Amino acid sequence: MTTSTDADVAVASLHAMGSGTKADFRPLYTEDAVNREALAEPPEARGTGPAALFAYALWLRAAFSDLAWEIHEVVHDGELVVIHSTMSGRQTGLFVSYGPDAKVAAAFPPRGRSFAVTQTHWLRMRDGRVAEHWANRDDLGMGQQLGWTPPTPLYLGRMLLATRRERSKAAA
């Protein structure tokens, strides 16, 4: 993967989330890169560096097929790159969210629905690679499009059963 500017690397890092391989992540992230959004992610995605960011991508891909980011605007100022984008996909797998204690908080069974939500990603760059990431996302809008909120009584029951199963698996 060849990139020429910090903005190019930042955009490539978003696209890698949808389809990149573990090898694709190495040149994009510093060894100590941190994702400030990791508090709701699985334990393996809470570390630092390319491996943790790749674990984050795998977590998203397990729940969402056709995962993609449409880039609308990119602003680059000094070491900071800001990307305004739309994330889209279709939920075809179980989405598991985690609490600050890294334990399963909730599980959302797939309904096969598609979503598209705007996001703003903030990336701090160092030596031509991403060193820090945080984002502003429309999680409520995504949940509404996927039918998570407000849940129907039947879907709420499916969520409770899926959450219980995921907690049991994590405890084993």
What does this structure look like?
This protein starts with 5 loop residues before the first helix and ends with a helix. α1 (about 5-20) packs across α3. The longest helix is centred in the C-terminal third of the chain and has 19 residues, at about 155-170. The protein has helices at about 5-20, 20-25, 50-65, 140-145, 155-170, and strands spanning about 30-35, 65-75, 80-90, 95-100, 105-110, 115-125, 130-135. With about 170 residues, it is an alpha+beta fold. A hairpin with a 2-residue loop joins β6 and β7 (about 130-135). The mean pLDDT is about 95. It has a single domain (about 5-170), classed as Nuclear Transport Factor 2, Chain: A. The chain contains 5 helices and 7 strands; from the N terminus they run ααβαββββββαα. The strands form 2 sheets. A 5-stranded mixed beta sheet has the order 1-7-6-3-2.
Q: Give the strand order, joined by hyphens, for the main sheet.
A: 1-7-6-3-2
The ordered H/E elements are HHEHEEEEEEHH
- Mean pLDDT, to the nearest integer, reads 95
Rg from C-alpha positions?
16 Å
Q: Beta fraction of the residues? A: 35-45%
Q: Helix tally?
A: 5
Specify the biggest β-sheet.
Answer: 5 strands, mixed
Instruction: Note the gap between the termini.
Output: 40 Å
The CATH architecture comes to Roll
How many discrete domains? 1
Which CATH class applies here? Answer: Alpha Beta
Q: How would you sum up the global shape?
A: globular
Instruction: Please tally the β strands and state the result.
Output: 7
Estimated helix fraction: 25-40%
InterPro entries: Cyclase_SnoaL-like (IPR009959), NTF2-like_dom_sf (IPR032710)
Protein name: Ester cyclase
Pfam family, one: SnoaL
